[in-house]
Amino acid sequence: MESHQSKKQGGQPLRVGIAGLGRLGARHAQALAYGTRHCTLVAACSPVAAERAYAAEHCGVQQLYENLDDMLANPDIDAVALVTPTSMHAGQTIAALRAGKHVFVEKPLALNVEDCEAVLKVAEQHLQQVAMVGFVRRFDPHYQAAQRVIAQGEIGRPFIVNSQTCDLNDPEGFFVRFAPTSGGIFMDCSIHDIDLARWMLGKPRALRVFASGTNALHPALAEHGDVDNGLAMIEFEGGARAVLYASRTMAHGHETSTEIIGTAGKLQIGEHGAKDRILRSDGHGVRHAVLRDFYERFEAAFQAEMAAFVAACRGEKALELELADAVEATRIGLAITKAYRTGQVVEVG
Ligand code: NAI
Predict the structure, then answer these.
(1) Fewer CB in a 10 Å sphere around the end CB: N or C, the chain?
(2) What number of CA atoms fall less than 13 Å from residue 163's CA on the CB side?
(3) pLDDT, tens only, 254-281
(4) Domains identified in the chain and CATH numbers
(5) Is the per-residue pLDDT at 4 higher than 90?
(6) How far is ligand 1, taken at its centre, from the CA of residue 26, in Å?
(7) Cβ of 84: how many Cβ atoms within 10 Å?
(8) What confidence category does residue 177 fall into, taking pLDDT thresholds of 50, 70 and 90?
(9) CA–centroid distance, residue 162 to ligand 1 (Å)
């Protein structure tokens, strides 16, 4: 997609409205209000009164909306960040683009390929506007460094990506309530690893997938065709393979890690979920403190992601991440979900 020209380049700060102020939206709102250059958070939208009050009290937002269409009708908003339930992403992205706004939308773009393609079509009719999906790991300095090393040929030809997204067990089971709109563990968690695998391997075409899974602690997920521990394998054209693991039940903390094996070396990113560089040795053993959640792990990347969105909207720097990447991630994530539910090998369409 072409780079975007902005009404705001070099001038006034980008005026952003946010929709969704839940677990992640409240964090994005903070980043947009206080942590991102050249932008102001001017509006917030949520059907929940307490969330609108949060935006007013904690982010200094004055224009509050219960309904997204009303926020989109405001001509004084240049861009929107959609941090709403996944099942709403595609329709809201299309509405925002048609209203003339730049759009940041959280991952995944949609829960079916048709909806993704509908977004892509509308985005192609609005090339002057940015449409960006929040694959936050693309903005993590460690993943970026690894990708550069690979692109420079330093590990030869990469052919295996072994990547996991593992969350600390939540005994309250937030994600069980989240299951009807999340698309399940592969669409919700492994989608990041799918995008990473494509990025690290140079975007080969996915041919077919296998999957399995188990419910170790949260059997209620089975009612939604979901699991709390999911395993998948992707075969790519040209011989590269990805092995993915996602878990909601880690006992120790959040552990996102990726290994890329090439013909002349391998890289490991984020092994063991260590919170810092302090290794403590005492009578209990030798250990690190552990990361608690995805935000603690990726806070810097979330900030960089918003900075990249604002820079793209202002026409300062084009995004490398394309909407088409989000379409492919959904296509593969859905094939994996089908492979898990049917127990069959699934060809990626
Ligand atoms: P959440 O359930 O905590 O928040 C959803 C928010 O959307 C709530 O504030 C809710 O009031 C609001 N909402 C619901 N309907 C709305 C509507 N019609 N208009 C405006 N707001 C509406 O969920 P969470 O965990 O914050 O996830 C939100 C999205 O962010 C999901 O798509 C999820 O996949 C994504 N996410 C991405 C992560 C990443 O690593 N990039 C991590 C966590 C979540």
Answers:
(1) C
(2) 26
(3) 999 999 999 999 999 998 899 999 999 9
(4) 14-134 (3.40.50.720), 138-300+329-347 (3.30.360.10)
(5) no
(6) 9
(7) 23
(8) confident
(9) 28
